[in-house]
Each structure stands twice: as structure tokens, then as C-alpha cells.
């Protein structure tokens, strides 16, 4: 049994605890079997366990040493188990002459077997027997387990004899790993020693390749379940890519194949260098510290590092705001750098296994069978060879001999469409110091980089390998600053560098036409651009200045102007890249938050764009940017808005000429719908078409137009003035609810309130009125269920509540207050200032009110109700959420259809909407304002 250092074992005094338990039996001649004594025993154990764990928690909060914390918790658990076992044997089930079968060894398995126990993790125990179970062993085992359960511990347990352990380890990978990590706690140590010996000889010695293949396949499956990328902004510390389980997998394989007992032995075997082993320990210690804080803070075995806890853990670990980054962003950047290090170590480790001929296939298609090794030289360079369809170095001096080779290997991998050999990636990681100013200024090196960036093959994959090895961040230092950088918001799903690489991948797919039908315009425009490389560089750089005090669009523009000439771009090309980076958010903002049927919106946007080519590039860049943000962020609606803005602006920047004029597009849309409507007569189609204004025809896609037409027609035939419908969109992660009802100032407010009552989170909304006085409002709510059947039932319930409220059958205010009060929200972790802007220059006919700030349940209801009370007529509403940020824009007039020009009235609107946004209620001033308006 391993002897632990005093700073681990001094957290519990097991000798004193034993003495206290024994003292309870003095009056019963050492017999501790009574119910009364058991209750006293449990009380003493609870006190000892609580005090010891509290002491460990205090020490951990002082030193932030996660590894030491887990070792101390594991030791406390060991001592509790030993004390209970000894008390049971000596005082509860006393046996003078036990047979050879009446023996057992208590063995820790799983994470507990490593001698590292997270604060709220399960305690996994194996009761190891020599033969079959005996009555004595059963009673001891039962007493131990019930005592542990009564202590409030989550115990995973198994009782097996030696033969069963070996037999099951051969057939079950989970049990094999459990035995691999087994650690003796107490009882008959010779039994445990026999288990280890038999496991080594009968199981491990004969199945090294099989076990390694299975564990790596298991790891890959786990990564898929957890979201594949190690750069998800709410990572799973235990199971996610780059998390603790990946480190554990490395150690399991090392222990199994190399027969080591600790990771410290790996440098001696040449698997890791001393620096890499230190990195292993550093990553492990950091991840354990994060996990322990996560458990203590949550009060349970929580493994997901959610937005709600990230700021507090950052504070506990001592991070502070610096150089434009919040404390939480600096903490998460460190986290993702550690996750990247785990990936580096995995790659290095797998390379070592491959040298041993244990792992013998490319990582992208892992097959664990032996294949014949084939090596051939690369035609353009004697420094590289193709080994089993993977590029690698001819010798270990390739990069030192010519540092340009650091870029050349990526360009060759792209040209020949081959994967990277782990040996080459490992050598690249170890050669980063060769990337200096001279290499960065090398014309050849920069041209090789541009070749990779603008490749027609798979630039995303090659750039990702470049980033994972650290080459990209060293060769482009501005990119290095955003590697592993997290933006503390709910909108972006990935770190900044991962977002940029995914955007490059999306741009490549657009160029190849490997995109859905609604992105066909982007592909058409991309293939007719005068300079595709300008767009690739703009996409790579558009967020490169994130995390700086200056606005990242302006700072990024400056970086683009500096870096363009280095990459061989002309002055004109560089200026275009800089313009695209500066304005990369503009088109999305205008499309989603402005009325595209208002000519001033189009003219103002065109004045900024000025050039048809810039308009084309900006559209493609915007699409690549949005789609790379994360799953479900892009949807067909946003695509339709962007296409509408593009077509509306194209005629202006082209000098008044457009391939398709506005009137032609309206007519074409009407004709398209007419052709798609089955069973409609021509007079019906014409009459229906007259009910919609031009903006409707330009902003809604065909499928929705058809659904709207059928909904309205059915309502007309039924003689009802109220109808609803819903559609689930699994790919976008939203459910669409459409409401057709008589128009009045509170329609949108009522719909929003009904959704709040139903627990539905509105992520987008589109509002139209018809020429005959009806409202046609469409809202998108965040999906709640995985299956369409469940989501359909939920949508039907929401529609029922909407209909009841519009009919006046529901009292919203009280129900909304109760719903908001009972609903917790992820946005509580965020702090955003509320901003209300009122302007008369964005539209010729409307006053534009833009409100933004922290999203919350019931927000849209409160805003629209307040506007109704302010006697504002909403001409159009543009509702958008960007993670935790709500940005709602309303085009309004007063009741005489005029703009709001009075300064005091505008000030009152700002005050009232600010209070409504923040949910602070009314003060006396607000009540006076309401009375004055009334």
C-alpha cells in the first residue's frame, strides 16, 4: 500500500476516530451490533467526514491545488472505509476462527482507484473475494455499504471473486479499465496482489493493441457526443475534448501498454520529453482545480463549465481583467489553451504508439488492423515523404535546416490531399522557436501560407492543423493573440480562433457549391469575383482584433492594412480587405434590425457600400460569419433578409440598374406563389395577392408564403378572424409560430406575453400587416424537445394560449409575473447596459426606436405593452437575440402617422422603455408620464 505524504494524510485522524468508536462498545463487552450503537457510530462518522471535507475545502480555496484536493478527499474516503470495515469485523460481526474463504479485499476502482476523488464524485468500490461469497463476507459487505449510503455518499459497488474479475475483464472494456486502475484500500492485500498479477498475465499481456484501439474509438465517440470541438464556450471539464477524460485515456493506455504505474515513468520510456510530461502535470492540475471548484460551487457532481459559474470560478482562481479582456475571458482562454495542450499530448502519445506498431492507421479513419507501411518521396522536396498516405519529415533536421519547410509541409499536404503523420506534427510543435521575424518576412513563406489559405481543396482542415501545432499563431502573431480566446457571451459557440477557421471552411463550401439551396446566390457571386483571395483573407481577419480595448472592427481594419502587403496583396486588394473587416457586421445588422421596405434604409446602406463588388463580397463574408458562429444560428429567414437587402442595394450601387428591379421581384414573387398554390382559382390568387404590401413579398420565402396563404384562406372559409399555425425546424433548433388576427396595438404584446406564460423563449419575430386590417405575425421560439412529436405538442399548447389571450380569455399580467418569477435563466451570469435610441434620420416616414440590453423572459411583452401605452403605432418590428443580448428595433409613428419629434416626448419614451427593459416597474414620474400621454 502506497505511503502518502503528511500534507495529504493530516486532514483526518483515523486513530482517534477508531478510539471513539471503540469507546461506544465498552459497556457492551465490545459488542457493537445494537441499533443504538450503530446510530452513535453513524453520528461520529458523519461528524468526522464533514469536518475533514470542510478542512479540505478550506485548504483548496486557499491554495487552488486541484490535484492535492482530490488526493486528500480520496484519503479521507479511504480512512472512513477502513474504520467502518475494522469496526464491523471487530465489534459487529466478530468471528474468532475465520475460514480461508472468509477473506476479502476492499479495492478502489475508477477515478477513486487513481487516488483522486472529486468533491461530489461517486465512490466506486470492488469487494474482492477469493472464492464464492460467504455469509460472513455478505454481512460485512452489507454493513459497509449501508453505512456509506447513510453517510450520504454515492457508492458504486461490485462484489466478485478473482476468477470473475479476470473473466469479466477479458470481455468487458469498462471492467477491464476499472481493474486496470484498481487500488488496494483495506483487508487482505494478498488477494489484491493476486488480482494484479493475474490481470497482467491473463488479460493485459495478450490484448494491448485491442485495448488501445477500443479506448481511442471510445474517446472519439465521446467527443462526438460532447460536440466534437474542444473550443465550445461551455465545455465539459470531465468528458469534453481536451478535458480530464482525455488525460485519463492517455494514462490508461500508457499503463496498459507500457505497464507503468504512474505518468512520471513516461519520460524514461521516451514517450514524452521532460517538458511534455511537465505540461501533462500542469494541464492535469489546472483541470482538476477547475473541476473541484465547479463541484464545490454547484454542490453536486456538475461537469459543465457553464456561463453561470465561469465568472465565480475565474474569481476564485485569481484571474483579473487586463488588456481589454474580462477576468472570465482570461480564465477561459487559459482553459482552452490547456485543452489544446491535452490535444498536443494526445498526438505525441499516439505517434509513440505508432512507432511501436500498435496504432497503425491515419487518425481521420482509424482502423486497428495491421497495414503494410508504404513510403515514397515528395516530388517537389526531398525533405518530406508520404508514409501510408500521410506526409512526414525525411529526418528530424528538416525544419532546422530550412525553416521555410514549416510552411511548406502544410502547402504540400494540401496539394496532395494527405493527412499529417503524428511524427511530423510532433516535430512541428517542438520547432516553434524557429518561427522568427526572418521567416515571417520571407516572401516564399508568405506565399506558401496564402496558397494554403486560398486553397480550393480543404483550407479549414490544413489551417486547423497549423493552429493546433502552434504554427499559425507564431507565423501570424495577431492570430496568436486570439488563439483559445473566448468571448463571454451566449451568441458565439466557439473560441475566436475556432470561429475564424470554421468561417474559412464555410467560405470554401460556398465556393464549391456544397451548401443548401438558400445559399445558392452566395455560390454564384463567389464564382464571379475578380479576386477570391481578398475574400479569404478578409474572412480570416474579420475577428482577429477581438479582445482589444478598441472596437474590434476598427482595430481589425488596421491589422489588415498592415498585414496585406506582407502576404503580397496590392494596395487596392489590401484596402478592400480592410474595408470588409471594418464593415463585416454591417450587412447583418441592417438586414436583421432595419425595415428593408424603407428606401432610406437601402440608400444609407448603399452609401457605405458604394461598389457592386464590395456588396457581393460583404454578403458572402456575412454568410460565412453567421454560419460559423454555431449550430442553429443561421436560418432560412436570415438568408431571405440578406438576399432582400442585397437585391435592394444592388440597383443603387450599380447606378440605378439591376438585373431584377424591385417591382419585377415583387411581381415575380406574386407569380411564383400563384403557381405554387394548388386548387386556387385565378381570382382567388389575385385577390389574396392584393392583401399584402411589397415588403412582405420581398422578405418572406416561398414555403412560408404558401403556409400563410393556406392559413388565411382556411380562416376566411371558416368565418374566423383568428388562426394560428406552427412548424418545427429541427436543423435550426427553433419552432415557428404564425398568428393571423385583427390588427390592433396590442397584438404583438399579447403574443409575446402568451409565449412568456408558456415558457417559450422568442429568439426572433417578424411583423406584417395586411391591407385589409389584419396582423400576420411570425415568431421563432427556441426548441425545447429533441423529437418533432414532442415539440409539435408544445407548439400546439403555445398556440392555444395565444388564441385564448387574443380572445380575452386569459389575464396575462398576473400569469406573466408568476412565470417570470419561477423561471431561472442562463442570462443571470451576464451584465449588459440597457440602451434606448430614438432617431428620425434612419427613415423618412417613421421614428426608429432601437432598444438593446440583457435579454430576459417577458421582455418583448413589456416593451410592446409600454409602446402601446405610449400611444405609439408600430409599423414594423425587428426582433433579434444574439445570445444573451436582445436587440429590438421598432419603426413607429404617433396616432396621426407622424414622426415623434418633440424632445420631451422622446425623452419620456427613452425613460419608459429603459424601465420596461430592465423590469424595474413604474415610479411616480412614470405614472405622471402615462397620465400625460393618456
Task: List descriptors.
Four Helix Bundle (Hemerythrin (Met), subunit A), hydrolase, eight-stranded antiparallel sheet, alpha+beta, HD/PDEase_dom, 934 residues, Beta Polymerase, domain 2, transferase, repeat, single chain, phosphoric diester hydrolase activity, globular, 16 strands, four-stranded mixed sheet, 41 helices
Brief overview:
With 934 residues, the chain is an alpha+beta fold. The protein is built from 41 helices and 16 strands.
Please describe the topology of this protein.
Blueprint lengths: L5 H4 L4 H10 L11 H29 L2 H27 L12 E4 L1 H4 L9 E7 L5 H16 L4 E7 H10 L1 H8 L2 E5 L1 H14 L5 H19 L17 H14 L16 H25 L11 H7 L10 H29 L19 E4 L2 E7 L2 E4 L4 H4 L3 H12 L2 E2 L1 H8 L7 H4 L2 H11 L5 H10 L2 H5 L1 H4 L15 H17 L7 H7 L5 H10 L10 H15 L4 H12 L3 H8 L5 H11 L2 H16 L8 H18 L8 H15 L5 H8 L4 H6 L2 H17 L4 E7 L4 E9 L4 H11 L4 E8 L4 E9 L5 H19 L5 H11 L12 E5 L7 E8 L4 H11 L3 E10 L2 E9 L9 H16 L5 H10 L1
Parallel strand pairs: 2-3, 7-8
Antiparallel strand pairs: 1-2, 1-4, 5-6, 6-7, 9-10, 10-12, 11-12, 11-15, 13-14, 14-16, 15-16
Structure description:
This protein is of the alpha+beta class and about 950 residues long. Among the domains are: about 5-205, Beta Polymerase, domain 2 (2-Layer Sandwich); about 210-365, Up-down Bundle (Four Helix Bundle (Hemerythrin (Met), subunit A)); about 695-934, no CATH class. It contains 41 helices and 16 strands. The strands form three sheets. The protein has an eight-stranded antiparallel sheet with strand order 9-10-12-11-15-16-14-13, with helices on both faces. A four-stranded mixed sheet has the order 3-2-1-4. The longest helix is centred in the first third of the chain and has 29 residues, at about 35-65. The radius of gyration is 33 Å and the shape is globular. About 45% of the residues are buried. This is Bifunctional uridylyltransferase/uridylyl-removing enzyme. It comes from Rhodobium orientis. InterPro entries: ACT-like_dom_sf (IPR045865), ACT_dom (IPR002912), HD/PDEase_dom (IPR003607), HD_domain (IPR006674), NT_sf (IPR043519), PII_UdlTrfase/GS_AdlTrfase (IPR013546), UTase/UR (IPR010043).
Amino acid at each position: 500500500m502506497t505511503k502518502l505524504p503528511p500534507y495529504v494524510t493530516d486532514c483526518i485522524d483515523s486513530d482517534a476516530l477508531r478510539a471513539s468508536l471503540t469507546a461506544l462498545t465498552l459497556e457492551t463487552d465490545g459488542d457493537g451490533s445494537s441499533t443504538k450503537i450503530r446510530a452513535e457510530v453513524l453520528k461520529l462518522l458523519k461528524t468526522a467526514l464533514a469536518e475533514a471535507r470542510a478542512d479540505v475545502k478550506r485548504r483548496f480555496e486557499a491554495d487552488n491545488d486541484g490535484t492535492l484536493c482530490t488526493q486528500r478527499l480520496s484519503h479521507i474516503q479511504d480512512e472512513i472505509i477502513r474504520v467502518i470495515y475494522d469496526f464491523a469485523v471487530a465489534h459487529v460481526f466478530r468471528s474468532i476462527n475465520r475460514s480461508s474463504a472468509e477473506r476479502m479485499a476492499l479495492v478502489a476502482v475508477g477515478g477513486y482507484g487513481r487516488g483522486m476523488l472529486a468533491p461530489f464524485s461517486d465512490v466506486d468500490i470492488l469487494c474482492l473475494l477469493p472464492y464464492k461469497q460467504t455469509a460472513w463476507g455478505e454481512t460485512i459487505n452489507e454493513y459497509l455499504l449501508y453505512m456509506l449510503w447513510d453517510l450520504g455518499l454515492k457508492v458504486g459497488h461490485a462484489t466478485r471473486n478473482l476468477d470473475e474479475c479476470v473473466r469479466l475483464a477479458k470481455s468487458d472494456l469498462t471492467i477491464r479499465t476499472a481493474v486496470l486502475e484498481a487500488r488496494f484500500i483495506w483487508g487482505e492485500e494478498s488477494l489484491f496482489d493476486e488480482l494484479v498479477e493475474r490481470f497482467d498475465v491473463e488479460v493485459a499481456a495478450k490484448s494491448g493493441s485491442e485495448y488501445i484501439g477500443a479506448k481511442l474509438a471510445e474517446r472519439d465517440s465521446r467527443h462526438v457526443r460532447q460536440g466534437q470541438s474542444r473550443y465550445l464556450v461551455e465545455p465539459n471539464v470531465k468528458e469534453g475534448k481536451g478535458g480530464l477524460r482525455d488525460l485519463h485515456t492517455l494514462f490508461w493506455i500508457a499503463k496498459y501498454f507500457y505497464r507503468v504505474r504512474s505518468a512520471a515513468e513516461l519520460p524514461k520510456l521516451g514517450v514524452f520529453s521532460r517538458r511534455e510530461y511537465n505540461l501533462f502535470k500542469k494541464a492535469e492540475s489546472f483541470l482538476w482545480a477547475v473541476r473541484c471548484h465547479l463541484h464545490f460551487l454547484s454542490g453536486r457532481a456538475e461537469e459543465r463549465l457553464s456561463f453561470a459559474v465561469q465568472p465565480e470560478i475565474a474569481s476564485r482562481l485569481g484571474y483579473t481583467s487586463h488588456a481589454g479582456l474580462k477576468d472570465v475571458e482570461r480564465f477561459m482562454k487559459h482553459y482552452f489553451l490547456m485543452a489544446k495542450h491535452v490535444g498536443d499530448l494526445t498526438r505525441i502519445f499516439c505517434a509513440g504508439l505508432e512507432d511501436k506498431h500498435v496504432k497503425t492507421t491515419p487518425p481521420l479513419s482509424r482502423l486497428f488492423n495491421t497495414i503494410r507501411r508504404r513510403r515514397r518521396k515528395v516530388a517537389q522536396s526531398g525533405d518530406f515523404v508520404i508514409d501510408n498516405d500521410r506526409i512526414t519529415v525525411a529526418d528530424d533536421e528538416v525544419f532546422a535546416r530550412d525553416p521555410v519547410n514549416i510552411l511548406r509541409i502544410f502547402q504540400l499536404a494540401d496539394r496532395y490531399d494527405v493527412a499529417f503523420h503524428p511524427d511530423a506534427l510532433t516535430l512541428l510543435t517542438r520547432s516553434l522557436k524557429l518561427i522568427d521575424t526572418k521567416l515571417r518576412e520571407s516572401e516564399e513563406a508568405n506565399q506558401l501560407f496564402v496558397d494554403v489559405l486560398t486553397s480550393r481543396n480543404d483550407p479549414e482542415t490544413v489551417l486547423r492543423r497549423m493552429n493546433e501545432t502552434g504554427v499559425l499563431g507564431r507565423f501570424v502573431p495577431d492570430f496568436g493573440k486570439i488563439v483559445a480566446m473566448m468571448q463571454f457571451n451566449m451568441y458565439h459557440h466557439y473560441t475566436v480562433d475556432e470561429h475564424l477557421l470554421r468561417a474559412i471552411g464555410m467560405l470554401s463550401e460556398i465556393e464549391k457549391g456544397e451548401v443548401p439551396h438558400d445559399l445558392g446566390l452566395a455560390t454564384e457571386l463567389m464564382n464571379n469575383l475578380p479576386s477570391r483571395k481578398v475574400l479569404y483573407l478578409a474572412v480570416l481577419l474579420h475577428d482577429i482584433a477581438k479582445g482589444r480595448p478598441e472596437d474590434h472592427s476598427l482595430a481589425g481594419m488596421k491589422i489588415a492594412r498592415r498585414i496585406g502587403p506582407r502576404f503580397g496583396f496590392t494596395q487596392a486588394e489590401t484596402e478592400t480587405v480592410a474595408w470588409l473587416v471594418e464593415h463585416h457586421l454591417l450587412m447583418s445588422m441592417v438586414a436583421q434590425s432595419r425595415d428593408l421596405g424603407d428606401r432610406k434604409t437601402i440608400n444609407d446602406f448603399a452609401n457605405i457600400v458604394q461598389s457592386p463588388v464590395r456588396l457581393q463580397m460583404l454578403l458572402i463574408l456575412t454568410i460565412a460569419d453567421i454560419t460559423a458562429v454555431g449550430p442553429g444560428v443561421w436560418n432560412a429567414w436570415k438568408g431571405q433578409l440578406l438576399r432582400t437587402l442585397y437585391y435592394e442595394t444592388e440597383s443603387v450601387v450599380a447606378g440605378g440598374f439591376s438585373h431584377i428591379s424591385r417591382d419585377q421581384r415583387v411581381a415575380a414573387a406574386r407569380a411564383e406563389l400563384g403557381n405554387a398554390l394548388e386548387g386556387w382559382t385565378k381570382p382567388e390568387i389575385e385577390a389574396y395577392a392584393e392583401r399584402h404590401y411589397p415588403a412582405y413579398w420581398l422578405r418572406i420565402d416561398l414555403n412560408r408564403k404558401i403556409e400563410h396563404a393556406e392559413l388565411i384562406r382556411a380562416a376566411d372559409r371558416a368565418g374566423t378572424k383568428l388562426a394560428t399555425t406552427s412548424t418545427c425546424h429541427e436543423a435550426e433548433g427553433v419552432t415557428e409560430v404564425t398568428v393571423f388576427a385583427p390588427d390592433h396595438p396590442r397584438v404583438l404584446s399579447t403574443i409575446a406575453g402568451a409565449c412568456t406564460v408558456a415558457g417559450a423563449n422568442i429568439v426572433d419575430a417578424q411583423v406584417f400587416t395586411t391591407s385589409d386590417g389584419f396582423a400576420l405575425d411570425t415568431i421563432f421560439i427556441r426548441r425545447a424537445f429533441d423529437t418533432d412529436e414532442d415539440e409539435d405538442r408544445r407548439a400546439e399548447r403555445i398556440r392555444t394560449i395565444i388564441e385564448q389571450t387574443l380572445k380575452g380569455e386569459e389575464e396575462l399580467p398576473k400569469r406573466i409575473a408568476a412565470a417570470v418569477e419561477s423561471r431561472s435563466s442562463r442570462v443571470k451570469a451576464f451584465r449588459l447596459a440597457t440602451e434606448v435610441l430614438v432617431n428620425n434620420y434612419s427613415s423618412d416616414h417613421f421614428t426608429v426606436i432601437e432598444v438593446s440590453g440583457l435579454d430576459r423572459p417577458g421582455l418583448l411583452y413589456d416593451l410592446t405593452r409600454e409602446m402601446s401605452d405610449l400611444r405609439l403605432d408600430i409599423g414594423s418590428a425587428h426582433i433579434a437575440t444574439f445570445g444573451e443580448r436582445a436587440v429590438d428595433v421598432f419603426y413607429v409613428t404617433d396616432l396621426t402617422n407622424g414622426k415623434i419629434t418633440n424632445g420631451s416626448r422622446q425623452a419620456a419614451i427613452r425613460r419608459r422603455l429603459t424601465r420596461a427593459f430592465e423590469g424595474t416597474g413604474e415610479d411616480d414620474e412614470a405614472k405622471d408620464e402615462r397620465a400625460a400621454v393618456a
